[in-house]
Design brief:
single chain, about 130 residues, alpha+beta, 3-stranded antiparallel β-sheet, about 15% strand, elongated
Length: about 130
């Protein structure tokens, strides 16, 4: 579990978009979170995996931008944005396992060919009978 210091995260309050009645136009309840990958104290391998992640929330400059506006209160949106950032960082915490190529065993190859021959024989028996 990777922890991110609060000093590395920039939170900005803004007005939420979309419908919401009278309250939406006067209350800044949406949160705009910014996190600079290069300037962070994350381990180098985690930074590299974040950089190559094809996520629309990561800009070309390596800044994670998350906008949270699902909830009515600023505090809930702040918690939502921080949770989403932690989920993103924790998704690349460990390097993916390297896949080693393997060959099918001789027994499994024989079994596959036997099943294939049986299937072909079954289809041959379905053919029309020719009378002489």
């Amino acid at each position: 579990m990777i922890t991110i210091p609060n000093l590395e995260i920039t939170l900005t309050a803004m007005r939420a978009q979309g419908a919401g009645g009278q309250n939406v136009n006067k209350v800044s309840s949406a949160i705009h979170l910014r996190f600079d990958i290069a300037a962070s104290t994350l381990p180098e391998d985690v930074k590299e995996r974040l950089w190559v992640l094809s996520d629309s929330r990561i800009t070309k400059d390596g800044v994670v931008v998350i906008k949270a506006q699902a909830h009515r209160t600023q505090e809930m949106n702040k918690m939502d944005a921080l949770l989403r950032l932690h989920e993103l960082v924790n998704s690349v915490e460990f390097a993916p396992k390297v896949r080693r190529k393997t060959k099918p065993s001789k027994a499994s190859q024989r079994e596959r060919l036997n099943v294939k021959n049986m299937h072909g024989a079954k289809k041959t028996l379905r053919a029309k009978v020719m009378h002489e």
